[in-house]
Amino acid sequence: MLRRRWIKAVVFPLCLTPISWVLWRAFYGDGLTANPVEFVTHFTGDWTIRFIVITLAVSPLRKLLALPDLIRFRRMLGLFAFFYGTLHCLTYFWLDKFFSLPEIAKDVVRRPFITAGFTAFALMLPLALTSTAGWIRRLGGTRWRTLHRLIYLTAIAAVVHYYWLVKSDIRLPAFYGALVAVLLGWRAVAWLRKRRSRQPSALSTQPSIPQRGAGGADELSAEN
Amino acid sequence: MLIKKPADLRHSDITPRSVYLNRRRFLAGLPVALVAGREALSPSGRARAAGGRFPNLVKSPFSTTEKPNSFNDVTHYNNFYEFGTGKEQPAKLAQKFKPGPEWKVSVEGAVARARKFTVEELIALAPMEERIYRHRCVEAWSIVVPWVGYSLSVLLKQAQPTAKAQYVAFESYYNSSMMLSSGEAGIEFPYVEGLRLDEAMHPLAMLSFGMYGDSLPPQDGAPVRLTVPWKYGFKSLKSLVKIKLVEKQPPTTWNLSNAREYGFYSNVNPQVDHPRWSQASERRLGEFLKRPTLMFNGYGNQVASLYNGMDLKKSY
User: Fold this and answer.
1) Which residue range(s) make up the domain with B184?
2) pTM of the predicted model, to two decimals?
């Protein structure tokens, strides 16, 4: 079923439901609380970190559930993380700082939680830009994959950003922190295992070089 | 002679109208319409006063002329961590909290006349006033609320503080069966606060029993709370059960949780930032643009003398 064409046409609008729900609530529903700016900031931030976690979960789930076709959704999910991240940044730049560059620069330098959040977003930029099949070809699979490991840093920076901004109730940042730790830990364990199994026969040449330009990001086998 | 009057500094007093209009007209457009539209739909909180619990209120000279926020805003955007750490949670989770006639406030410690008061007894102590105060949260948002009550000093004078009384310690109600645990909220319960005795005796410091002409809703600190308008909102402790006059500076909840971020004084001060965010400006609920935060939340003329000779950067 995951191979069907229409399934993407289902997942795509599904990823748009959070933003649709906010727009509906703003114009037809209960409104966006007494502090709409704060509400939108938190809402878009929540969905950014959720999509980062969902994107990071794709590779482990492919292996654990033996569903290699899940790879077809990874790029879309990653781009949705970027989409909500962009909205999140925009609410801050616009509704909190009114595009005042000196104010923003001061915040980024002086407020550690802004520094962390800004880092998380900045690291997503190159990933979004190089998410096309053309860029995979241009960079080559190995380099592309190395570059896209920046998502790990984004995830860590996003959790730190969340943890540093809450006043006292750390339950949610701790929850996302645990998820990210598990998802990155799984990769670390997989990497160590692979290294160990490779070592005894280190001299024998392993065909570990991925095929270049074999297809889009969808086909690129995800070892990361 | 110095004539003290409330300093109601407006946006227009600081930024020339033409400057901010030009620069921000484009940015302001859509969300303003959105916010203003919703505000127009919500029932005016002030209209409630007619049928409320406190119909004959004395108008207070301490009131600001600024427009109060809607009743809906003030009752659906709360920091009351005992009932959840989200802003909208207390409005839902505090509904099972129904303080009854058995509620008592104990006044004790370094006083000549320690005793317990029922809320009815407290209400009978002095004429009920309506005081429209600005309320500035440490999180850089603010509201304007028409409180009902009287100066805390009325009660303190009645208790007759002894020479030992230097500070006043306050304690909130806590009941673990209907409230969050300390572990969940990340702060210690019961919630405690404190003021220096001269701060507590200042006429602006208020014991509030209601708002918008009616009793306090549970999420706003029923049945009786503190209102200290020149300090960050967390100093205005809710659902008061104990007032103790003490010799030494008492512990305060947020200071216990993070002493670097929340000091004992916590006076509103645009020049002293919270370590994690600026306190120079604030968002008045219902407004799109931020407004500059005023020293002592605009009550400097009345309270600044309490802090003469103090370094407010150190005593934050």
Assistant:
1) 11-307
2) 0.83
